[in-house]
Amino acid sequence: MKLIRLAFVTQFPIDINRPLGGVEAVSVNLVHSLSAYVELDIQVVTLCPNITQVTQESWGRVTIHRLPKPRGSELINAVTKSKKLVEDYVRKLQPDLIHAHDTYGIMVNDLTIPKVFTVHGFIYGDTLLANGRFKWLRSKLWEYIEKRSWAKQLNIISISPYVRENLSSVTSAIIFDIDNPISDKFFTLERSEKVGTIFTSAVICPRKNSLKLVKAVGLLVAAGYNVQLRIAGSVGDEVYAQEQEQWILENNLEKHVHLLGRISTQDVMKELSSASIYALTSLEENSPMGIEEAMAVGVPVVTSNRCGMPYMVKHGETGYLINPFDEVNIADKCKQILDNNQLKLAMEKKSKVLARDLYHSDNVARRTYAVYRELQSNPNP
Protein backbone atom coordinates (compact mmCIF):
# COMPACT_ATOMS: atom_id res chain seq x y z
CA MET A 1 0.00 0.00 0.00
CA LYS A 2 1.31 3.42 -0.96
CA LEU A 3 2.80 5.53 1.85
CA ILE A 4 0.78 8.67 2.61
CA ARG A 5 2.80 11.65 3.81
CA LEU A 6 0.37 13.45 6.12
CA ALA A 7 0.79 17.01 7.38
CA PHE A 8 -1.24 17.10 10.60
CA VAL A 9 -1.51 20.85 11.21
CA THR A 10 -2.86 21.71 14.64
CA GLN A 11 -2.36 22.92 18.18
CA PHE A 12 -0.05 20.43 19.90
CA PRO A 13 1.20 20.56 23.51
CA ILE A 14 4.80 20.68 24.67
CA ASP A 15 3.92 18.04 27.28
CA ILE A 16 1.60 15.39 25.83
CA ASN A 17 0.36 14.57 29.34
CA ARG A 18 -0.81 18.14 29.96
CA PRO A 19 -2.68 19.34 26.87
CA LEU A 20 -4.16 22.81 27.17
CA GLY A 21 -7.69 22.72 25.83
CA GLY A 22 -9.71 20.31 23.76
CA VAL A 23 -7.93 20.73 20.41
CA GLU A 24 -4.54 19.83 21.91
CA ALA A 25 -6.04 16.79 23.67
CA VAL A 26 -7.78 15.64 20.49
CA SER A 27 -4.58 16.04 18.50
CA VAL A 28 -2.52 13.97 20.93
CA ASN A 29 -5.10 11.17 21.10
CA LEU A 30 -5.77 11.02 17.37
CA VAL A 31 -2.13 11.23 16.27
CA HIS A 32 -1.23 8.45 18.72
CA SER A 33 -3.85 6.08 17.27
CA LEU A 34 -3.21 7.10 13.66
CA SER A 35 0.49 6.29 14.11
CA ALA A 36 -0.48 2.60 14.27
CA TYR A 37 -1.18 2.79 10.51
CA VAL A 38 2.24 1.98 9.03
CA GLU A 39 1.30 3.47 5.68
CA LEU A 40 0.98 6.93 7.28
CA ASP A 41 4.06 9.15 7.55
CA ILE A 42 2.74 11.70 10.05
CA GLN A 43 4.31 15.16 10.23
CA VAL A 44 2.73 17.30 12.96
CA VAL A 45 3.10 21.04 12.34
CA THR A 46 2.30 23.42 15.19
CA LEU A 47 3.01 26.96 16.34
CA CYS A 48 4.79 27.22 19.67
CA PRO A 49 5.33 30.30 21.87
CA ASN A 50 8.65 30.98 23.58
CA ILE A 51 10.86 29.50 20.86
CA THR A 52 12.90 31.48 18.34
CA GLN A 53 13.63 28.86 15.70
CA VAL A 54 12.05 25.77 14.18
CA THR A 55 12.55 22.58 16.19
CA GLN A 56 11.88 18.96 15.31
CA GLU A 57 11.35 16.02 17.63
CA SER A 58 10.22 12.42 17.31
CA TRP A 59 7.29 10.87 19.15
CA GLY A 60 7.34 7.22 18.19
CA ARG A 61 6.88 7.12 14.43
CA VAL A 62 5.62 10.73 14.37
CA THR A 63 7.72 13.83 13.65
CA ILE A 64 6.67 17.03 15.41
CA HIS A 65 7.68 20.35 13.84
CA ARG A 66 7.39 23.35 16.17
CA LEU A 67 7.43 26.79 14.55
CA PRO A 68 7.94 30.05 16.48
CA LYS A 69 4.50 31.51 17.11
CA PRO A 70 4.24 35.15 15.99
CA ARG A 71 3.35 37.68 18.65
CA GLY A 72 0.21 39.73 18.44
CA SER A 73 -3.46 39.18 17.73
CA GLU A 74 -4.51 35.57 17.07
CA LEU A 75 -7.22 36.90 14.78
CA ILE A 76 -4.92 39.02 12.63
CA ASN A 77 -2.10 36.48 12.59
CA ALA A 78 -4.43 33.72 11.36
CA VAL A 79 -4.66 35.54 8.04
CA THR A 80 -1.21 37.19 8.00
CA LYS A 81 1.98 36.18 9.86
CA SER A 82 0.91 32.76 11.15
CA LYS A 83 -0.76 31.92 7.87
CA LYS A 84 2.36 32.63 5.81
CA LEU A 85 4.65 30.82 8.25
CA VAL A 86 2.55 27.64 8.38
CA GLU A 87 1.68 27.75 4.69
CA ASP A 88 5.33 28.02 3.61
CA TYR A 89 6.48 25.30 6.00
CA VAL A 90 3.78 22.81 4.98
CA ARG A 91 4.55 23.45 1.33
CA LYS A 92 8.22 22.55 1.96
CA LEU A 93 7.16 19.26 3.58
CA GLN A 94 5.48 18.28 0.31
CA PRO A 95 2.71 16.23 1.91
CA ASP A 96 0.27 14.06 0.00
CA LEU A 97 -2.51 15.17 2.33
CA ILE A 98 -3.20 17.86 4.94
CA HIS A 99 -5.38 17.42 8.01
CA ALA A 100 -5.87 20.84 9.61
CA HIS A 101 -7.61 21.67 12.86
CA ASP A 102 -9.25 24.78 14.30
CA THR A 103 -7.57 28.08 13.23
CA TYR A 104 -4.92 26.13 11.28
CA GLY A 105 -7.59 25.35 8.71
CA ILE A 106 -7.75 29.08 7.99
CA MET A 107 -3.97 29.19 7.58
CA VAL A 108 -3.71 26.40 4.99
CA ASN A 109 -6.94 26.82 3.03
CA ASP A 110 -5.16 28.38 0.04
CA LEU A 111 -2.76 25.45 -0.45
CA THR A 112 -3.63 23.35 -3.51
CA ILE A 113 -2.95 20.05 -1.75
CA PRO A 114 -5.72 17.55 -0.92
CA LYS A 115 -6.88 18.36 2.57
CA VAL A 116 -9.53 17.91 5.21
CA PHE A 117 -10.37 20.44 7.91
CA THR A 118 -11.74 19.47 11.33
CA VAL A 119 -13.98 22.23 12.64
CA HIS A 120 -13.86 22.13 16.43
CA GLY A 121 -16.07 25.09 17.13
CA PHE A 122 -16.98 28.66 16.45
CA ILE A 123 -14.52 31.24 17.68
CA TYR A 124 -16.92 34.06 16.87
CA GLY A 125 -19.46 32.55 19.28
CA ASP A 126 -16.90 32.09 22.03
CA THR A 127 -15.72 35.68 21.59
CA LEU A 128 -19.20 37.08 22.27
CA LEU A 129 -19.22 35.34 25.66
CA ALA A 130 -15.76 36.60 26.62
CA ASN A 131 -14.88 39.77 28.47
CA GLY A 132 -12.70 42.49 27.00
CA ARG A 133 -13.08 45.51 24.79
CA PHE A 134 -14.75 45.48 21.38
CA LYS A 135 -15.88 41.85 21.75
CA TRP A 136 -18.83 42.41 19.39
CA LEU A 137 -16.50 43.75 16.69
CA ARG A 138 -13.96 40.97 17.26
CA SER A 139 -16.75 38.42 17.04
CA LYS A 140 -17.92 39.82 13.71
CA LEU A 141 -14.39 39.74 12.32
CA TRP A 142 -13.92 36.13 13.44
CA GLU A 143 -17.28 35.22 11.93
CA TYR A 144 -16.26 36.68 8.59
CA ILE A 145 -12.87 34.91 8.62
CA GLU A 146 -14.24 31.55 9.79
CA LYS A 147 -17.18 31.42 7.40
CA ARG A 148 -15.00 32.52 4.49
CA SER A 149 -12.63 29.66 5.34
CA TRP A 150 -15.44 27.07 5.59
CA ALA A 151 -16.80 28.20 2.24
CA LYS A 152 -13.42 27.47 0.63
CA GLN A 153 -13.09 23.97 2.07
CA LEU A 154 -13.87 20.91 -0.03
CA ASN A 155 -13.72 18.38 2.82
CA ILE A 156 -14.69 18.99 6.43
CA ILE A 157 -14.84 16.75 9.49
CA SER A 158 -17.64 17.75 11.86
CA ILE A 159 -17.25 16.68 15.49
CA SER A 160 -20.95 17.09 16.34
CA PRO A 161 -24.37 17.38 14.68
CA TYR A 162 -24.45 20.87 16.18
CA VAL A 163 -21.32 21.76 14.22
CA ARG A 164 -22.77 20.23 11.04
CA GLU A 165 -25.94 22.32 11.42
CA ASN A 166 -23.90 25.51 11.59
CA LEU A 167 -21.68 24.55 8.65
CA SER A 168 -24.25 23.27 6.18
CA SER A 169 -25.64 26.68 5.26
CA VAL A 170 -22.16 28.14 4.72
CA THR A 171 -20.22 25.50 2.77
CA SER A 172 -20.80 23.01 -0.03
CA ALA A 173 -17.96 20.82 1.28
CA ILE A 174 -18.32 17.08 1.79
CA ILE A 175 -18.91 16.79 5.55
CA PHE A 176 -17.75 13.70 7.44
CA ASP A 177 -19.21 13.11 10.91
CA ILE A 178 -16.48 11.94 13.30
CA ASP A 179 -16.48 12.57 17.04
CA ASN A 180 -13.42 13.67 19.00
CA PRO A 181 -11.24 10.91 20.50
CA ILE A 182 -10.20 10.63 24.13
CA SER A 183 -7.35 8.75 25.76
CA ASP A 184 -7.86 4.98 25.83
CA LYS A 185 -6.98 4.98 29.53
CA PHE A 186 -10.38 6.42 30.44
CA PHE A 187 -12.07 3.21 29.24
CA THR A 188 -10.15 0.98 31.66
CA LEU A 189 -10.34 3.22 34.71
CA GLU A 190 -11.51 1.56 37.93
CA ARG A 191 -14.27 3.44 39.76
CA SER A 192 -13.94 4.18 43.47
CA GLU A 193 -16.75 6.64 44.05
CA LYS A 194 -16.68 9.12 46.90
CA VAL A 195 -20.40 9.71 47.28
CA GLY A 196 -21.39 13.33 46.89
CA THR A 197 -18.39 14.37 44.78
CA ILE A 198 -19.21 16.62 41.81
CA PHE A 199 -16.38 17.17 39.36
CA THR A 200 -16.08 19.69 36.55
CA SER A 201 -13.21 20.53 34.21
CA ALA A 202 -13.53 24.01 32.80
CA VAL A 203 -11.54 27.21 32.49
CA ILE A 204 -12.82 29.81 34.97
CA CYS A 205 -14.59 32.29 32.70
CA PRO A 206 -18.12 33.52 31.89
CA ARG A 207 -18.60 31.11 28.98
CA LYS A 208 -17.98 28.08 31.20
CA ASN A 209 -20.45 29.50 33.75
CA SER A 210 -18.94 27.69 36.76
CA LEU A 211 -20.34 30.25 39.22
CA LYS A 212 -23.85 29.01 38.48
CA LEU A 213 -22.69 25.47 39.35
CA VAL A 214 -21.18 26.82 42.59
CA LYS A 215 -24.55 28.39 43.44
CA ALA A 216 -26.29 25.06 42.78
CA VAL A 217 -23.88 23.40 45.19
CA GLY A 218 -24.80 26.07 47.73
CA LEU A 219 -28.43 24.98 47.40
CA LEU A 220 -27.46 21.33 47.85
CA VAL A 221 -25.51 22.13 51.01
CA ALA A 222 -28.43 24.17 52.36
CA ALA A 223 -30.70 21.17 51.70
CA GLY A 224 -28.47 18.96 53.83
CA TYR A 225 -26.38 17.23 51.14
CA ASN A 226 -22.74 16.63 51.98
CA VAL A 227 -21.37 17.45 48.54
CA GLN A 228 -17.89 18.38 47.37
CA LEU A 229 -17.51 20.39 44.14
CA ARG A 230 -14.06 19.99 42.59
CA ILE A 231 -13.29 22.47 39.79
CA ALA A 232 -10.31 21.71 37.53
CA GLY A 233 -9.31 24.56 35.25
CA SER A 234 -7.03 27.54 34.94
CA VAL A 235 -8.28 31.10 35.35
CA GLY A 236 -9.32 32.51 32.00
CA ASP A 237 -10.97 35.65 33.35
CA GLU A 238 -9.60 37.27 36.52
CA VAL A 239 -12.70 39.38 37.20
CA TYR A 240 -15.01 36.38 36.91
CA ALA A 241 -12.70 34.24 39.06
CA GLN A 242 -12.70 36.90 41.79
CA GLU A 243 -16.48 37.16 41.67
CA GLN A 244 -16.76 33.38 42.04
CA GLU A 245 -14.27 33.26 44.91
CA GLN A 246 -16.07 36.08 46.70
CA TRP A 247 -19.40 34.25 46.39
CA ILE A 248 -17.83 31.09 47.86
CA LEU A 249 -16.50 33.05 50.86
CA GLU A 250 -19.70 35.01 51.46
CA ASN A 251 -21.75 31.79 51.49
CA ASN A 252 -19.33 29.79 53.65
CA LEU A 253 -18.69 27.16 51.00
CA GLU A 254 -14.91 26.93 51.38
CA LYS A 255 -15.22 23.37 52.70
CA HIS A 256 -17.45 22.34 49.81
CA VAL A 257 -15.84 23.98 46.75
CA HIS A 258 -12.25 23.13 45.79
CA LEU A 259 -10.38 25.00 43.04
CA LEU A 260 -7.79 22.61 41.62
CA GLY A 261 -6.33 24.80 38.87
CA ARG A 262 -5.14 23.23 35.65
CA ILE A 263 -4.43 19.53 36.18
CA SER A 264 -2.89 16.72 34.13
CA THR A 265 -4.81 14.04 32.23
CA GLN A 266 -3.77 11.54 34.92
CA ASP A 267 -5.25 13.79 37.60
CA VAL A 268 -8.48 14.16 35.61
CA MET A 269 -8.71 10.36 35.64
CA LYS A 270 -8.29 10.29 39.41
CA GLU A 271 -11.02 12.89 39.82
CA LEU A 272 -13.45 11.03 37.57
CA SER A 273 -12.77 7.70 39.25
CA SER A 274 -14.11 9.11 42.53
CA ALA A 275 -16.87 11.40 41.19
CA SER A 276 -20.59 10.80 41.64
CA ILE A 277 -21.44 13.38 38.96
CA TYR A 278 -19.62 15.21 36.19
CA ALA A 279 -21.17 18.66 35.73
CA LEU A 280 -20.64 21.19 32.95
CA THR A 281 -22.88 24.25 32.95
CA SER A 282 -21.31 26.06 29.98
CA LEU A 283 -23.25 28.60 27.95
CA GLU A 284 -21.57 27.49 24.71
CA GLU A 285 -19.85 24.20 23.84
CA ASN A 286 -19.59 22.12 20.72
CA SER A 287 -18.40 18.68 21.82
CA PRO A 288 -16.62 19.03 25.16
CA MET A 289 -13.95 16.45 25.97
CA GLY A 290 -14.93 16.44 29.63
CA ILE A 291 -18.32 14.92 28.83
CA GLU A 292 -16.72 12.27 26.62
CA GLU A 293 -14.23 11.35 29.35
CA ALA A 294 -16.91 11.17 32.03
CA MET A 295 -19.04 8.90 29.86
CA ALA A 296 -16.11 6.58 29.17
CA VAL A 297 -15.57 6.21 32.92
CA GLY A 298 -19.31 5.81 33.54
CA VAL A 299 -19.90 9.00 35.53
CA PRO A 300 -23.43 10.45 35.11
CA VAL A 301 -23.34 13.86 33.42
CA VAL A 302 -25.30 16.99 34.28
CA THR A 303 -24.87 19.53 31.51
CA SER A 304 -26.47 22.42 29.62
CA ASN A 305 -29.44 21.96 27.31
CA ARG A 306 -27.91 24.03 24.51
CA CYS A 307 -25.43 23.97 21.61
CA GLY A 308 -23.66 20.61 21.17
CA MET A 309 -24.27 19.21 24.64
CA PRO A 310 -27.78 17.76 24.07
CA TYR A 311 -26.35 15.61 21.25
CA MET A 312 -23.97 13.95 23.72
CA VAL A 313 -26.11 13.27 26.79
CA LYS A 314 -29.30 11.19 26.66
CA HIS A 315 -31.59 12.93 29.13
CA GLY A 316 -32.56 10.55 31.92
CA GLU A 317 -30.41 7.75 30.50
CA THR A 318 -26.77 8.87 30.70
CA GLY A 319 -27.33 12.03 32.70
CA TYR A 320 -29.50 15.13 32.68
CA LEU A 321 -29.76 18.29 30.60
CA ILE A 322 -30.29 21.47 32.61
CA ASN A 323 -30.96 25.16 32.10
CA PRO A 324 -27.51 26.72 32.68
CA PHE A 325 -29.12 29.94 33.95
CA ASP A 326 -31.10 28.15 36.68
CA GLU A 327 -29.20 26.92 39.74
CA VAL A 328 -32.39 25.38 41.16
CA ASN A 329 -32.73 23.18 38.08
CA ILE A 330 -29.04 22.21 38.27
CA ALA A 331 -29.31 21.30 41.95
CA ASP A 332 -32.53 19.33 41.37
CA LYS A 333 -30.96 17.10 38.70
CA CYS A 334 -27.91 16.50 40.88
CA LYS A 335 -30.26 15.46 43.70
CA GLN A 336 -32.00 12.93 41.46
CA ILE A 337 -28.68 11.21 40.72
CA LEU A 338 -27.38 11.39 44.28
CA ASP A 339 -30.64 9.97 45.69
CA ASN A 340 -30.98 7.01 43.32
CA ASN A 341 -28.14 4.50 43.25
CA GLN A 342 -29.98 2.22 40.80
CA LEU A 343 -30.36 5.11 38.35
CA LYS A 344 -26.69 5.97 38.78
CA LEU A 345 -25.65 2.40 37.90
CA ALA A 346 -27.93 2.31 34.84
CA MET A 347 -26.46 5.60 33.61
CA GLU A 348 -22.94 4.25 34.15
CA LYS A 349 -23.62 1.16 32.04
CA LYS A 350 -25.22 2.99 29.11
CA SER A 351 -22.62 5.77 29.10
CA LYS A 352 -19.73 3.33 28.77
CA VAL A 353 -21.29 1.54 25.79
CA LEU A 354 -22.00 4.76 23.89
CA ALA A 355 -18.60 6.27 24.69
CA ARG A 356 -16.60 3.27 23.48
CA ASP A 357 -18.23 3.34 20.06
CA LEU A 358 -18.09 7.10 19.57
CA TYR A 359 -14.99 8.30 21.40
CA HIS A 360 -12.45 5.49 21.66
CA SER A 361 -9.36 6.76 19.82
CA ASP A 362 -8.98 3.55 17.79
CA ASN A 363 -12.53 3.89 16.44
CA VAL A 364 -12.04 7.59 15.70
CA ALA A 365 -8.69 6.88 14.00
CA ARG A 366 -10.29 4.15 11.87
CA ARG A 367 -13.00 6.55 10.65
CA THR A 368 -10.44 9.31 10.07
CA TYR A 369 -8.11 6.99 8.16
CA ALA A 370 -11.03 5.99 5.92
CA VAL A 371 -11.43 9.70 5.04
CA TYR A 372 -7.73 9.89 4.14
CA ARG A 373 -8.01 6.85 1.85
CA GLU A 374 -11.08 8.34 0.18
CA LEU A 375 -9.29 11.64 -0.45
CA GLN A 376 -6.30 9.78 -1.88
CA SER A 377 -8.60 7.84 -4.22
CA ASN A 378 -10.58 10.94 -5.20
CA PRO A 379 -8.31 13.98 -4.68
CA ASN A 380 -10.03 17.33 -4.98
CA PRO A 381 -7.49 19.98 -3.95
What is the topology?
Layout lengths: L3 E6 L12 H13 L5 E9 L6 E5 L2 E7 L5 H4 L3 H13 L3 E5 L2 H5 L6 E5 L3 H6 L6 H18 L2 E4 L2 H8 L5 E4 L19 E5 L8 H13 L5 E5 L5 H13 L6 E5 L3 H10 L2 E4 L8 H9 L3 E4 L14 E4 L4 H12 L2 H19 L1 H17 L4
Parallel strand pairs: 1-2, 1-5, 2-4, 5-6, 6-7, 7-8, 9-10, 9-12, 10-11, 12-13, 13-14
Antiparallel strand pairs: 3-4
Helix pairs in contact: 1-14, 8-9, 8-12, 11-13, 13-14
- The share of residues in helices is 40-55%
Overall 3D geometry? globular
Q: Total number of β-strand segments?
A: 14
Question: What summary fits the major beta sheet?
Answer: 8 strands, mixed
Can you count the helices? 14
> For the CA atoms, what is the radius of gyration?
21 Å
What does this structure look like?
The structure is a single chain. The protein has an 8-stranded mixed beta sheet, sandwiched between helices. It has a 6-stranded parallel beta sheet with strand order 11-10-9-12-13-14, with helices on both faces. The radius of gyration is 21 Å and the shape is globular. It has 14 helices and 14 strands. Helix content is 42%, strand content 19%. The two termini are 22 Å apart. α1 crosses α14 and α13 packs parallel to α14. By secondary structure, the chain is α/β, with parallel strands linked by helices.
Short description:
The chain is an alpha/beta fold and 381 residues long. The protein has helices at residues 22-34, 74-77, 81-93, 104-108, 123-128, 135-152, 161-168, 210-222, 238-250, 265-274, 289-297, 327-338, 341-359, 361-377; strands spanning 4-9, 40-48, 55-59, 62-68, 97-101, 115-119, 155-158, 174-177, 197-201, 228-232, 257-261, 277-280, 301-304, 319-322.
